[in-house]
Amino acid sequence: MQKQTIKRGRRPELMWGLGLNDTLKRQIEEGVGPGFHIRNFPAGSFPWTRELGQDEQPSAAWIPWSVWNDFPEYRKEEYRNQDSTQRILIQDEGDKTLDMDRVLSEGFLTVVRTPLTRPKIQDVMFRAKEVTSMYSDIYRMTEEILLERELLARKTDQLMFLNKILASATESLDAATILRNAKETLGIVLPIKMLHAAFWSNQQNSKVADVELFLNGKMVPETESAWIEDLMTTAASMSGGPVNGFQVVHIDPARRPEYRLTPKEGRLVTIPLIAGQETFGCLTMLCEPDYRLGKDQVETFRSAVNHIGLALRNALTFKEVKLRADRDALTRIYNRHSFEERLVYEIKRRRRYNNNLSLLMVDLDYFKRVNDTYGHKAGDMVLQKVGEILTQTFRDTDLPARYGGEEFVVLLPHTTEEAAWKLAERVRTAIEACEFHFDGHDFSVTSSIGVASVEAGALTSDDDLIIKADKALYKAKNNGRNMVVVSGQKTAVQTAMM
Hints:
With 498 residues, this protein is of the alpha/beta class.
């Protein structure tokens, strides 16, 4: 028979014996050799719950069948729950032989009959070692599988999160909507109390940047001032140059209790928004002070912010393109195309709801003389100033536009003829009061204004209102200029001779 050897560690390996007599204990010790230590528990002092729960567990337990048979079932179950211990059943020569199924069902690795010879014991020990090694491999593989499943689950969650970010970021080309969705979606990973943003762009031929601030919502003046100061400081730092004025957009028009929080009432996280090699803005988030992200969560969060930054850049570009398409490049008020689209809309709405609708047509008097005398740059300066006057005079619901050359129009929904005349006179007076200085020369300009209104009934065509205002303007110019004429009246309502 081939001689088998048992590998032993430096420290004797612990085994238990339950109710072994001296002969059985000696036979087992001789069979396993000096690399093992057998702790035998005599009858009446068997280890129960406390000993079974200790950190150091025996690698094997030798239990005679007579002892095991006397255990109550709940005690047997406690021993069966010792996964790290291999139980070996000992039967006397006179005991009825148990089949292997019964041995295994009782929770034993194997059964060995007396007398316990060295070959029998070594065979049992090698079998125990093989089973232990197999269990260890299975346990390790199970741990690896569980770890891989956990990692896969986290990757899946991250992909779902990024997919949600992409979906919410690309559903709109409005920066406020994107930021409102971003606060909700980013809150899945990081509990965000408030989210603000700042975007900056350099003025033409200047290193000074204009800043647009998107605040989470409407706040009390003191809180809003604190956030504006913080964002403007960040903008000045990240833009790499001085910042000029700013305008504020509220992402959420409501005034909520949490919008009283200042930048100091939580952990402030500021992330730059980069497109290409250019930093065009930043996100500032107020978070819980003690919350921390894992390494993989940080990477996912950064990817999410990059996606949001790209969506915001697209939204800002779209806004700029639309602004250029809708606005006059020189005066920055609406152009003729935008006016004509809005006119059709307002006429349809007036027909449906029978609202008042008025139109002003403004023409600068002798404007050609300005260009011929002082140059086109001086003329451009005059046109820009008129655009500024029109912007400041009217409501957000009104639409001032450059109609062509030195001619302007103003569409006034829900405005009566009398109110339109008063507004026209205010514009005429404001233009006349302007003093222009260019290249060492001082000069002024005046304007003629035609007013047309519809207060009842329906127009026969979309051009009627324009035709009426144009005819009124023609009368104003023929009657001496620098006056306001209301359509349909035979005489000028206001005359101011040059």
